[in-house]
Each structure stands twice: as C-alpha cells, then as structure tokens.
Write a structure and sequence with these properties.
The protein is an alpha+beta fold. 34% of the residues lie in helices and 17% in strands. Helix 10 (273-291) packs across helix 11, helix 10 (273-291) packs parallel to helix 12 and helix 12 runs antiparallel to helix 13. The chain is elongated and about 80 Å long. Mean pLDDT is 87; it is low at 1-17 and 369-388.
Amino acid sequence: MLFDLDVSELSLSDYQADAVPLEVRPGCHLVGRRNPASLLQCNTYVRSFETSRSPVHVCIDPGSRTDWPVVAANINRLIGDVGELQSFTCNHQDPDVIGNASYLCDANPNISALMTEEVWRLAQHLDFQPRRVHFANSICSPFVTLADRHRWQFVPTPFCHFRGAMAFYDPDIRTLFSGDLFGGLNRPGRVQMLAEESDWAGIAQFHQIYMPTREALRYAVRQIRSLTPAVEVIAPQHGFVITGELVPLFLERLENLLVGLDLLLVENDTVALDGYRAVLDRLIVAARQTLGREEVQRRLRSTDSGDGLDRLISLREEDLHLERDGFAAVVKIFSRLARGEASGFANSLRSDVLAACFEHNLPLPPVGAGLEEGELNSGIGSDGIRTH
C-alpha cells in the first residue's frame, strides 16, 4: 500500500507561524518544527551552558532542510542568532538528522561538529565544512567536555540504525539525546512534546521499520541502563520526549521488540499463528459491528485486490482460518476492511489490532498507525500514482 501526503500548499509563512522553542529541561530546548501535517516529527535540540564568560550553545541533530525556517526562527528566538551556536552534534548522517548542517556552518564559520568517524565518512559528502570535526569514540575516551566543565558521555548505539550511531548523555540534566533510537511515528495533529503511554505504538512501528534486529536494540538498552546517574529523560530525533515512568517502561518494551530481520523470520513462524488468529478474530468481530457480516465476508472473499491473501487464509462459510504468515495476513485483512472507510472506523480497527497484539505479546503489524484521514482510500491521484 502506498500512502500519499500533499504538501504542495505549504508556504514559508506556514512554517514560521508556529515557531516556539519548547523547554525540555532547564537549559535545553526543542527547536524543531512540530508539524501537524507530518507523521514523523524531526526533533532538533539546543543545549545552552552558562560560563564565566559568555554562554555556550550546542545544537543536537540540526534537522531536516524542509524544517529550516522554523529551526532558524526558534534558535533566533532562543539565543539571538543562529551564528551564536558554537557546535553541533550528529547521531548519524541521514538527511532528516543532518540536513541543516550546512546552514549552521554558513552562519558561523568557526562552528565545530561532534560525531563518530563512521558518520563523518558519509556526512562529508553533503559538502558542509565545520571548522573542526571531533570524533566521538567511546573506546578512546567515554566523555567529551563542553563549555569548560560540562561533561557528556558517549553512548554507542551501533546499528540503531547506523553502524556508527552515537547517542549523547548529559548527566547534568539527566537527558539522553538518542537519535533515531526511541523515535516514533505520530498520529496526525498529535504534536505535543512529551510522550504518553499510548505513543508506544508509533515508537514500536518506527523501530520495526527502521531497526535491523532486536539484538542491536538490546545492546543499546544495556548501554543506557548502565549510565549514572540514571537517565530521566530520553530526547529522540523523532516523535516525543520520553520522561518519568515511561523511561524504564519503554526501555523494557524496546528490549523485547522484534524488528527488521526478526519480522522476516516471524512471518513464517508457526509458533505465532495462534496469537495472530486471536488478533484476526477480534478484528473481524469489530468490523462486523459496523460493516455487517455480509460486507465483511464479501471483502474477505474478493479476488480483485491481488494482495495474495487467499494464500494465507481459508474461508469456511463465515469462519476464517489463518493458515500461515499471521503477521502479513493481519496487514492485508486490515487493509481490505479499512479501505474507503472513515478515519474513525479505521482508527478503531487499528486500536483493536494493537491492543490484541500487546495482549498476546506479538510483533505489531504495520497497520498504518499515524495515517491521515483519506490515506487508506484506493484510487489514482492527480499525479497519476495508484494506491493499493
């Protein structure tokens, strides 16, 4: 299924209208755009340190070029001018993380950058030139000193989701800048800064798409749990800032989440079939309450979609029997039942799927957590792209 988002009507004024720095902790602000039209927020942070001379300002993950008007406006409101930033860090080299690095270098030709050598090896091809690049290498030294006396700890998170990904821990405010780790998708319009427990579904789905394997996540979780003092705030590059009791809760959940390669294996895992049968039972019962038995049966028996569902299930009168690949079957059946329906109905079905998966300790299928109204509709748009 292909999901489309029309951004052609967005203007510079739209981006600047909601430019407000948000305080994460004293001396630390989120300056990225909270975009209600986006499913994936790009979180840029500024950490400010008071010194005996003048303040030192560090930008964490410069962010996406598409958000630069808001990022720049927020930084200007916060510290006076983008050129006052003395350094920036990069967790990894993806364009949503590092896209604005060139603007920071243009604003202050003396700015320095902090990242791993693996990240710099690729990031330099974006043709930005900080005055100095400091390599974050936890083996050579586990700490870096900022603003004369403030120490950050390097927290290696390899393969989450890049080999050289490095998180940075600020023990003064007990905040971990985690990059894509703990990032998450959000429902449209849900752009508050702080995470709630219900946001876990978007975090889980983001990791299942972008992280390679549970073992990489478990290694990262071990690094985070070993930090002293203990982490109180996780500030990821996407989604929401995680605080309070959600920090240990989400660490535990992430440690047990199947992602990436794990999901390719579980699709054919017969051990999970009974669990996914229960998920499908709940999904179909919920759909029948709105669509009716005959319409649900018609959609399940349809041979027009070409999605291969008939190879995964068998239908005996009104009973559906899951034969194989429960993870994939849930996605296909959800798509058939939700396509063309109002967003409220699709969201209700989605909630039933996610709740049932949690109850049975199953990997969350990608059933579109965070999709805008109308995105499940099939058809050909004005740009000629067909959605399936």
